[in-house]
Design goal:
heterodimer; A: about 425 residues; alpha/beta; eight-stranded mixed sheet; five-stranded parallel sheet; globular; B: about 300 residues; four-stranded parallel sheet; 9 strands; about 40% helix; about 15% strand
């Protein structure tokens, strides 16, 4: 395994309260040394990180890797490549695969495939209900034993309040957070975008913000009743984050994530009928975007999570109301975060924020830790282009958009998975100029 | 104007030019030659008799070759996508594709991928621009103007592309537009389209110059938007009694087909205020003017 000397960068590790110009030496798959003006070890690859940010590898709480079952859209391998390209080294995989991850066999399959590929770390999320059908709880104990880090029926809401109560109660015994896709399906039925003036004008069937907020409000009452860990997936409205803020102020064990697209785009984007603007939850209003950015900055929102949802061209090149819900996000999350937050906050919400939320051993890089490291060039200007996207699917609303900021080196477990600064071709002299 | 995808993107001058041309045609002016011998495909992916027939007659009066592709014969039954259907039709080089489709935005989508002009003949709950043009033209012929009039649109505004296109068109032409119906059929944010919103019919009809009644589709009952046809017609239907609140010379319009006794009683539909058949007649002239315009511009 290569030794890498990352020299002269601004190291931001919010968990360690570090924000300073520091060298990092990666050796034997670990963060071997952190310090000022370190000597380059013999034979090491050299990464000139001056003017760049060095941070723990990014952590995504919410991705759809589609394997098993829908390998035409994405595989664990292509999803891992996309993650590495975007600076992520840890990705939590949602269970709505085919078949869904509601038992040990599927969890083990995902973990084994990820290990064989040797890319980023893939942490499975188990289903709350068997078959994601919303009827019977999945075997939480067995799933925990097999290695899931959270539970979710993402893509569907746990509509039944009694079942949700039981999930929170039973999940508490295994210290697993219940991740809710908050959508009252009765209220949202048939809605392809956010309800309001824009949808009315475009004539697109719409769903109200209240469909999300009502479920969050109900769930927070159940959290108070059960004391269980609860995580709001893809919060998208001003009232959702207000509810979470209030719950947190009362000390409830509640956490919350937001997607990059909800931080940057509004419902106006749907008026062109571009199906890459169709996802759940739908893009909301500018007032919602402003509230989300504020909640992210003040810590009400713990994490930026991509909700990376690959879909084939066929399922997007159709009429708006017929198109699949979802967009990819692993490769564009970082520049969006840097556009709306300070560098330090952006890194926190992409590293320790998410890692803390699911209690993951990730998102921080003290000496001796597994070497998950990203080097970010905050001034890297690039245009999102389909041929450049590592994900198997290209369904992003950011196609053709100019971005600023990009991962230039992604190291996971000491392995270089993405290298835009050509570290691997660097001639590195030893201490006395000898390779 | 290569395409007519909706009223919203059309400027007022163009709107008036189309209406002036439609008036001239309606009074016997000779149709232009630009469309003669060209191929027009009526691609109707949703059931329609009136609009399809109107477009067909309009095209024939312009001496175009018309091909009708209707839902029951189209490849969509065989699983072909709309885009593939449109590209295949376009490969046969028609001058115009007239599209009726259940999905909002579908004409805009195919317009990006075909060489032909695209005319929207109704897309989902978005727009039905030729209906609004014929409505405005009919109003203008009866009232000699549109500007300054009060037009009340009654019924299922939520699902109505006719209401949306008329809100754009009447707004551009300077009319005041009221929309009225139960709150469950009034879309959120419709005020932003310039509408004055009423949830009871009587005040909405008060002093109106034009009463435009929309069809209540049967499937709205199963969707739970209204409890029953009986309750709807009693409280939101236009009848001989409540229509008296409108101006004494108010006209009554309906885009058809009428559910007699539901949204409109027969005595009003067939009464002296009704201009419903004038709308149908004028519709052919408007569609001729539109086809001339898009073919001449491409």
């Amino acid at each position: 395994m290569q030794t890498i000397h990352i020299r002269g960068g601004r190291l931001i590790d919010p968990r360690q309260d570090v924000d300073d110009e520091l060298d990092v030496i990666v050796q034997d798959g670990r963060v071997a040394r952190i310090g000022k003006g370190l000597d380059t070890p013999t034979g090491a690859l050299l990464c000139d990180a001056r003017g760049k940010i060095v941070a723990p590898g990014l952590v995504d709480l919410h991705a759809h890797l589609r394997e098993p079952g829908e390998e035409g859209k994405e595989t664990i391998e292509t999803g891992s490549n996309a993650a590495a390209s975007g600076g992520f080294t840890t990705v939590c995989a949602m269970p709505n695969t085919t078949p869904p991850n509601d038992c040990r066999a599927i969890t083990m399959l995902i973990r084994t495939r990820a290990r064989e590929i040797g890319g980023v770390r893939v942490l499975p999320i188990g289903a709350i209900t068997r078959g994601l059908l919303g009827e019977h709880l999945a075997d939480f104990g067995e799933l925990k034993e097999a290695g899931v880090v959270a539970l979710s029926d993402d893509g569907k809401c746990v509509m039944n309040a009694r079942l949700m109560r039981r999930a929170l109660e039973y999940g508490r015994s295994f210290d697993l957070p219940i991740v809710q896709h908050a959508e009252d399906h009765n209220l949202s039925q048939g809605g392809a975008m956010n309800e309001g003036a824009t949808a009315t004008r475009a004539g697109i069937p719409a769903q109200p913000a209240e469909a999300e907020e009502i479920i969050v409000a109900r769930d927070l009452i159940l959290v108070e009743m059960t004391g269980a860990r609860y995580h709001v997936a893809h919060a998208s409205t001003a009232r959702t984050v207000a509810l979470v803020r209030e719950a947190k102020s009362r000390g409830l064990p509640v956490t919350c994530e937001v997607t990059p697209h909800h931080l940057m785009l509004t419902e106006e984007a749907c008026a062109t009928y571009d199906t890459h603007t169709k996802m759940y939850p739908p893009l909301r209003t500018q007032a919602d975007v402003d509230a989300l950015v504020a909640a992210l900055a003040d810590g009400t929102i713990d994490a930026i999570a991509t909700d990376h949802a690959p879909h084939s061209k066929n399922s997007k090149q159709v009429e708006f109301d017929c198109a699949a819900f979802g967009v990819i996000g692993l490769e564009t999350a970082l520049p969006v975060a840097l556009a709306v937050l300070s560098p330090r906050d952006a890194i926190e919400r992409l590293t320790w924020g998410p890692a803390r939320t699911f209690k993951l051993h990730a998102g921080t890089m003290p000496e001796g830790s597994i070497a998950d490291v990203v080097v970010v060039d905050p001034d890297f200007e690039w245009t999102v282009a389909a041929e450049d996207i590592q994900s198997k699917s290209k369904n992003t609303p950011f196609l053709g958009r100019k971005m600023r900021g990009r991962a230039v080196l992604t190291v996971a477990g000491g392995q270089i998975l993405c290298d835009r600064c050509e570290v691997t071709r660097s001639m590195t002299p030893g201490p006395r100029g000898v390779v | 104007m290569k395409h007519l995808l909706g009223i919203e993107p059309v400027d007022t001058a163009t709107l008036l030019a189309i209406l002036d041309r439609a008036d001239a045609i309606h009074e016997g002016a000779r149709p232009a030659d630009v469309v003669a011998g060209r191929t027009i495909v009526n691609l109707f992916m949703e059931p329609s008799t009136r609009t399809r027939t109107s477009f067909e007659i309009a095209a024939k009066r312009l001496r175009a070759d018309v091909v009708n592709v209707s839902e029951s014969f189209s490849s969509s039954k065989k699983g072909e996508t709309l885009l593939d259907t449109a590209r295949n039709v376009d490969a046969m080089r028609p001058a115009v594709i007239v599209l009726r489709h259940a999905s909002s935005g579908s004409p805009a989508m195919i317009a990006k991928h075909v060489r032909a002009s695209v005319v929207n003949a109704g897309d989902g709950t978005h727009e039905h621009p030729t209906q609004a043009l014929l409505d405005c033209g009919t109003i203008r012929r009866h009232k000699k103007r549109v500007e300054g009039l009060t037009v009340t649109i009654v019924g299922d505004i939520l699902h109505s592309r006719v209401a949306r296109s008329n809100l754009h068109a009447l707004g551009k032409l300077g009319a005041t537009v009221r929309v009225a119906g139960p709150r469950s059929l009034l879309p959120r944010g419709v005020e932003a389209m310039g509408a004055l919103v009423y949830d009871r019919i009587e005040p909405a009809l008060e002093g109106a110059d034009v009463v435009m009644v929309l069809r209540l589709q049967q499937e709205r009952m199963s969707g739970g938007y209204v409890p029953s046809l009986r309750d709807y017609s009693r409280f939101f239907g236009v009848n001989a009694k409540n229509v008296r609140a409108a101006k004494h010379d108010a006209i009554v319009m309906h885009p058809g087909p009428i559910n007699r006794g539901v949204e409109l009683t027969s005595d009003v539909a067939d009464g002296p205020r009704s201009v419903i058949l004038d709308q149908v007649a004028y519709g052919v002239s408007v569609r001729m003017a539109v086809l001339e315009k898009v073919v001449a511009s491409s």
